[in-house]
Write the structure tokens for this entry.
Amino acid sequence: MRYLLYFLQKQYIYFLFLALEAISLLLLFNYNDYQNSALAGISNGIAGSVLNLSSNVSEYFSLRRVNRILAEDNARLHSNRSEAFYKADTGSFYQHDTLYKLEYRYISAKVINNSTDKRNNFLMLNKGHRQGIENHMGVIMGDRIIGQVVSVSDHFCWVMSLLNKDSRISGKFKKNNQLVNIEWGGGDYRLGEVKEIPKHVVIHKGDTIITSGNSDIFPEGLLIGTIDKFTIAQEENFNYATITFATDFNSLSFVEVLIDMMRQEKENLKKSFK
Amino acid sequence: MTILFLKNTGRFIFLILFQVLILNNIQYSGYINPYFYIYFILLLPFETPRWLLLISAFLLGISMDVFTNTLGLNAAACVLMAFVRPFVISAISTGTEFMAGHSPSLKNQGVKWFAYYSIILVLVHHSALFYLEIFRFTEFFQTLLRVLLSSAFTLLLVFIAEYLSYPRGK
């Protein structure tokens, strides 16, 4: 026993090293548990306020571009107002609540931290629990897809963008509804990978890929990207293609979080089926 | 002693902020991410006890992780780097370089010594960091390229910082 203690005392530095490494790796691999823990809220709060400050400064540099986008949005919305239409038959513009039930609500949020150069990229947004944001909500910009919420604190949330090892989006060809999965292989943030395209699907350069609506996160029809290059496999059963993302992940400033009003209902249905 | 402590604490905070607010926003072709904040570990004084070396590296890494949402990743790489630091120093030193109360520096230890010292440690840190981040070997060479390019960039910053803190005229 005495020798054991002596041994421990003499070699304590190795044990300290192993202990610290163990803690680090444990934290790293229990990542998903961590995200729901109280610790996440606290550290997100601190990091959030620093990053928020930095974003407040850098926001000024993109004002010109943001203004342009807002002006364009305004123009688009104005042209959608009922005043912009000639009422040929008042009955044809009649909308009834039982026919159109609100399914998605959009919350605008500012990107206060973003990266595109890591293998796993995340964005931080300045909206959180208080604004009604929950885990697994989709994040979009206009009609383009960005990612999904993975961690929420009171005023901030982390979003896993498409540019992530764990990101896997269910999409489809716009022209013939063939389902495919979209991933990101690292490197260039503008290019994604489409694996497992069935062999009978004819691919052309420029084919549009949109979300399939099969996942609970994104509705159908959001733009993901267009086919850039493709290879026809000789031996395997699936073809492979790279796509150019519709979203420019390097220039995000304002995005929208999708709140699915019927999510609870969908989840309950799933549960009752099991 | 207190001055040494304050100096290092200040450097700790400055390097974290510099990394988070400036360097993490530099993005070039997805391959180059300099991690200059580890300059803190390079500059800890020679006679720092090894336990303190490990603990402060852990704190440095974990603070970095809080900002990048990669809890444990930077911490693991930093602790590994702090662990090998004494071995590297004893391996490349001939015994005459040390001065009590001093940090390793380009001026005191010479270009050759400092180059060996920083290149080895930066490579250790960056390899651990990038391979842990990917955690698969399918992208082995792509990751290796990232390690080498980013290390080169970090080292460039380290040497610039060394030359800035010890002007040649002195």
